[in-house]
Design a protein that fits this description.
The protein is of the alpha+beta class and 410 residues long. 50% of the residues lie in helices and 9% in strands. It has one domain: Cytochrome p450 (Orthogonal Bundle).
Length: 410
């Protein structure tokens, strides 16, 4: 293993904890792609993979996994078990589809798909479009506000809650719970971050246990009831699998949609000619949604464990290593995209990987696209002169990329 020849030098601009890098990581990604196909990054002990072709192929490579526990103990894999105090987070996280491999992943995804059907998603369309329209009208009536808290957050949170059958009076903690849990997906999270994630995991789990019990007694026309009813040859989801699925759908669903919305609008504001073209021709909205997700990717990095030795560009990556698949870099790779630094709202050839690929392709992608299309259309319609009133503050997070706020006026 030629780690020294493939390590990223300390002079590199790639630094996930540097605010300047977080503000605009794309020049550093270009440097990574120039340096090679795989580079060891000592601060996080990960192998960075920056090229689109490699990221796309490795997402489908069964020698990698989101977990290794289906084949190895922590000790066998050369890893240290998480601290016992973090157990509530890991119980919640480790029973969700995103962090499982076959056969458990296959079984759970098949059962969830029986409840999370295209028909279920399509049935939400009037609700999604109606709520997006209402939020845009409210923003217009107020003469502006914070696009994040007034539009970007309320829409996907309400939609996922509606899908799960969570009453309106119970929805207040959902976004804080999600934000605290998702803090653990950043590189080298602090103990303070872990404590918040554990607390949120305990509280969210307790709430969902009560909701599941209520739906067992009185099923409704909602996803929780569908998850309870879903079965295949006598197999059903366990209660913990249902809880973890609900949390995953909320976290992955609305974190991505919230950040895609504000990242997208900030990109449009920085390209007034493209925004003017979009305002003049709403038929561009479907391709604009895809391009905005590519241009400033909501999920910048996806981690995979090396279950069996692999070789990338002559470098052997041994079992027990962790790969960091750089979605943001892959989405700006000139080998896959013509003029990747250009915001092209009419881009047709757009193989972005913002929804991942392979067996972990986002099950909620159709719903996310519906929400982003509805939100963008409603804002273009009801706030035709929308503009930023101050530069936004970007969140310090690298992996899940978004803004703290985006203040706008009319």
């Amino acid at each position: 293993m030629a780690v020294s020849k493939r390590s990223l030098p300390s002079s590199s601009a790639f630094d996930p904890w540097d605010p300047e890098f977080v503000a605009d990581p794309y020049p550093a990604y270009a440097e990574l792609r120039d340096r090679g196909r795989v580079l060891h990054y000592e601060p996080s002990d990960q192998w960075l993979v920056p090229h689109h072709a490699d990221v796309s192929a490795l997402l489908r490579d069964r020698r990698l996994g989101r977990t290794y526990r289906h084949r190895f103990t922590h000790e066998d894999f050369g890893r240290t078990a998480p601290p016992p105090g973090h157990e509530p987070f890991h119980v919640l996280n480790d029973h969700g589809m995103l962090d499982l491999e076959p056969p458990d992943h296959t079984r759970i995804r098949r059962l969830v798909s029986k409840a999370f059907t295209a028909r279920t998603v399509e049935r939400l369309r009037p609700y999604v479009e109606g709520l997006a329209d209402e939020l845009a009208r409210n923003l217009a009536d107020a003469g502006g506000g914070d696009l994040l808290t007034d539009v970007a957050e309320p829409l996907p949170v309400a939609v996922i809650a509606e899908m799960l059958g969570i009453p309106g009076s119970d929805r207040g903690p959902l976004r804080p719970w999600s934000a605290d849990i998702c803090g653990m997906y950043e590189l080298n999270p602090s103990e303070e971050t872990a404590a918040r994630a554990v607390r949120a995991s305990v509280e969210f789990t307790a709430y969902l246990r009560e909701l599941i019990a209520a739906r067992r007694e009185k099923p409704g026309d909602d996803l929780v009831s569908g998850l309870i009813a879903a079965h295949d040859e006598g197999d059903r989801l366990t209660e913990q699998e249902m809880i973890s699925t609900c949390v995953l759908l909320l976290n992955a669903g609305h974190e991505a949609t919230v950040n895609a919305t504000v990242n997208g609008w900030w990109a449009l504001f920085r390209h007034p000619d493209r925004l003017a073209a979009l305002r003049a021709d709403h038929s561009l909205v479907p391709t604009a949604v895809e391009e905005l997700m590519r241009y400033d990717t909501p999920l910048q990095l996806f981690e995979r464990w090396v279950l069996d030795d692999i070789e990338i560009d002559g470098t052997t990556i041994p079992r027990g290593s962790e790969l960091a698949l750089l979605f943001g870099s892959a989405n700006h790779d000139p080998a896959a995209f013509s003029a990747p630094g250009r915001l092209d709202l009419a881009r047709r050839d757009n193989p972005h990987i913002s929804f991942s690929a392979g067996i972990h392709y986002c099950i909620g992608a159709p719903l996310a696209r519906m929400e982003l299309t509805a939100s963008l259309t409603a804002l273009l319609t009801h706030t035709p002169t929308l503009h930023p009133t101050s530069p936004p503050t970007r969140k310090p997070n690298f992996v899940i990329r978004g803004l703290e706020s985006l203040h706008v006026g009319l």
